[in-house]
Amino acid sequence: MDRERHQNLQSIIMLRELVRKWWRAELHFADRHGQVLDWNRGEAIASAASACCRLARGSREGLRRCNQSVRELHEQFVGNRRLRRAIVQPCHLQFSLVAAPLYVQDEYEGFLFVEGLLREPLTAGAREGIRARLRELQPAALDVERAVERLLVLDDDNLEKLTVLLEYGTGEIAAYEAERTREQERALEAPARGGGNARFGHIIGRSAALQEIFKVLEKVSNSEATVLINGESGTGKELVARAIHDNGPRRNAPFVVQNCSAFNDNLLESALFGHMRGSFTGAVRDKKGLFEMADSGTFFLDEVGDMSPALQVKLLRVLQEGTFLPVGGTQPREVDVRVVAATHKDLGEMVKRGEFREDLYYRINVIRVHLPPLRERRDDLPLLVDHFLRKHHREGQRARGLSPEALALLGRYAWPGNVRELENEMERLLVLGGDLELLPADLISSRIRDAVSPGGSSSPLPRLTGSLHEAVEALEREMIHQGLLRTGKNKSRLARELGISRSNLILKIARYGLDAGLPPDAEADA
Question: Can you tell me where the transmembrane regions are (predicted)?
Fold first, then answer.
């Protein structure tokens, strides 16, 4: 298990901060052998509730006893596989260890725990006993009194909160590992399903547009060049960025993600570059920024077009010099990070309007990957539908696909939300119609039905039989045929309505034999 990845999960970062804020304690990871990772690395913990524990581990004998207390906790989990909830157990200093076991695909992988807490106030005798044991382990320690005074009492309400949070943390890690396993399985299955490139099997599709992207990714992934991914919201920009990372020389290093439109300027600066203690109200300790967390790996900056001019300057400095200043800092820090940026905006136009720095634009636009919207890769719709139905299928659901009418309806929709919108619709259909073998068209969201047939009226659909691919081809032929009649054979207008290029439309007209009676490339473009 990759604990470094787990500690960089946003949910685990949040959990650690909550434990520090509410109980002034520290979250620890123990592996499947009962070994505590940060103790073995000798990392110092500054949390108040752990002060006595830190003193104890400062000696060889104290570290041995602390590890023995954790091993006893570990043996409880190993000895009882039915024990899946958080438990409380005393350590050698009679403090409480609160721990939740971690199971991944029903395999025990260790536990999360918090130490250094009391279950009830100390009596004078108990307080003196703790002082004596600490002085035995650390005779020269000067801060024993202060450490004992800062011990916190964990009442029943707080114990319940802490156990719920620890169980939430183990659940998040288990879900993360399960999704990684599913991604690996889908990557292996993708070539057999006609999904395209084996190296990028988690990117579903075999359209000509995606094949071109795969060719670019093959070359880009093995380089260290900065990449700019451009595409509408929901087209899979983060998926492509992760593919670049996973297939490149930094695949074993961190992959860090930040959406630049998620925070205001001050919060984004702190998130990217970190801050020093006292640099602003609430900055009670030094905090690493995401650039430091991504050191030696890849940093995916989504919606970089929303970054303010001031932060654009700082980003340019990192890209050019590999250095930055934390908020409130005076000493520059160095990082080695590959940046992959993404935006749905036209950065070239923003440069012309003075809204985006020209030097930064050329620095991040070394290699550009354009992701087409779903309406320009409708050939991939059956594969994507099948993929998302598999992904969101739950035990007990009978649904094995869409009815031909439902697929035809989806094929006529423009998908402004692109692949993300399609996935949400598939999940919704499974919830509403999971007890049916084929999901019918009348379960599709009203916004989609109304967009395709305003007012709820439905135009006649062709009879669709055979495979999903054949059904989409039949629908596509009928849409183009009806469109040519409606537009008076105006191919430019029809191409705009269908959301495809004019040259692509001409190829499809020839493919389906619809060019009979059409003058050679002639049309009424008035």
Answer: none
Q: N- to C-terminal Cα distance for the chain?
A: 64
Residue 16 has which token pair? 């650690």
Q: Which domains does the chain have, with CATH numbers?
A: 3-182 (no CATH), 210-372 (3.40.50.300), 376-452 (1.10.8.60), 461-525 (1.10.10.60)
Q: Summarize pLDDT for 254-312 with one digit per residue, the tens.
A: 999 999 987 888 888 988 998 888 777 777 788 888 999 999 999 999 999 999 999 99
- Of the candidates 369, 294, 277, 282, the one whose C-alpha atom is nearest the C-alpha of residue 330 is 277
Check: CB of residue 177 under 8 Å from CB of residue 5.
no
Instruction: Decide: 161 and 21 in contact? Cβ < 8 Å.
Output: no
Phi and psi at residue 286, to the nearest 5°:
-65, 145
Q: Sorting pLDDT into bands at 50, 70 and 90, what band is 395?
A: confident
Cα-to-chain-centroid distance, residue 526: 48
Q: 69: pLDDT confidence band, cut at 50, 70 and 90?
A: very high
Residue 113 host element (H or E):
strand 107-118
Strands 87-90 and 96-104: antiparallel
What's the CA gap between 230 and 369, in Å, rounded? 6
Region for residue 238 given its phi and psi (left: phi exceeds 0; alpha: psi -120 to 50; beta: otherwise): alpha
- Looking at residue 488, its pLDDT comes to 72
| CA–CA dist 321, 190 (Å, integer) | 40
Question: Mean pLDDT, the chain, as a whole number?
Answer: 83
DSSP state of 87: E
- Find the helix or strand (DSSP H, E) in which 170 lies: helix 156-189
Backbone angles phi, psi at 145, to 5 degrees: -60, -50
Give the pLDDT band of residue 526 (cuts 50, 70, 90).
very low
Which two structure tokens, joined as six digits, stand for 97? 């260890």
Please enumerate, as own/partner, the contacts of 390-397 that have beta carbons within 8 Å and a separation of 24 or more. 391/182, 391/423, 392/423, 392/426, 392/427, 392/430, 393/430, 394/430, 394/434, 396/434, 397/430, 397/434, 397/435
> What are the two backbone dihedrals, phi and then psi, of residue 414, each rounded to the nearest 5 degrees?
-85, -15
The model carries a pTM of 0.53
Of all residues in the chain, what percent carry a pLDDT higher than 70? 85
Using H for helix, E for strand and C for coil, what is the string for 22-53? HHCCCEEEECCCCCEHHHHCCCCCCCHHHHHH
pLDDT, tens digit (0-9, with 9 covering 90-100), for 131-165: 888 888 888 777 777 778 778 888 888 898 899 88
**CA 192 – CA 196 distance, rounded (Å):** 9
